[in-house]
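PROTEIN SPECIFICATION:
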Amino acid sequence: MSAEVTPHHLSLTDEDLAASDYSTDFKMSPPLRTRADVEACREALADGTIDAIATDHAPHSPVEKELEFDQAANGIIGLETALAVCLGLVRQGAFGERRLIEALTAGPARAFRLPGGRLAPGEPADVAVVDPTAEWTVDPERLRSRSKNTPWKGKRLTGRCTYTIVGGRIVHEGKADR
């Protein structure tokens, strides 16, 4: 048995939704909850009750999101912001850096019985090179996702994947806008 949590459910609350004036960039399923619920998710991740962080990347076109809140599609994009959002939680003391790495790598691999998720002889050498100090501003127009539905629009985040290596090949090279 396994359990997952998303970066947005570890960091955003129903108060953030209200403060956004119910922007559909904050509409997701399950919906955002109270600060106490967020704290419970953080504690469960820290103690291993929750074993994986999933981005829950749910891209939607403007046609699906630029509607009245009740009619807009659920979901946000999360691939490009997940690492920085979670590193921010590490810096706040919500859980440790080791726990974060485990929850983003080995935890999901185990949950889905996939090879990888760790560096060891005989395992796929898929590697993400991270710059935990890279500062950048979330500009939906500069994200690689074709969708732009993110609650972090305009926010300054710290931490970025600078290289992704899969099967010995660089498949992603990112730069921070310092």
The chain has seven helices and five strands. Strands lie at 4-5, 52-53, 127-137, 156-166, 169-173. The mean pLDDT is 93. Residues 11 and 156 are 15 Å apart (CA to CA).
